[in-house]
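User: I'll paste a sequence; please echo it back and then give the predicted structure.

Assistant: Echoing your sequence first, then the prediction.
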Amino acid sequence: MGRLSGIKYRQIVKLLKKFGFEFYRQAAGSHEIWYNPTTKKYTTIPNHPGDMPEGTIRAILKQADIDIKEFMSKK
């Protein structure tokens, strides 16, 4: 297990809000689009129960242009 494992949807949303992201719209199925008006970046987040896979979290952070170390420091 990596350092990004064990994070749930609600925790990710809470942390993204700290980085200035806000809910933009509902996407296909259980996915949501979040937007940061300051950086003009979008990211897609799946709203699934349980822990988010580490690869999915890395993809969210890459889309959002957030450094993993910075993300973990806000956790």
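The longest helix spans residues 54-64. Strands lie at 22-26, 31-36, 41-46.
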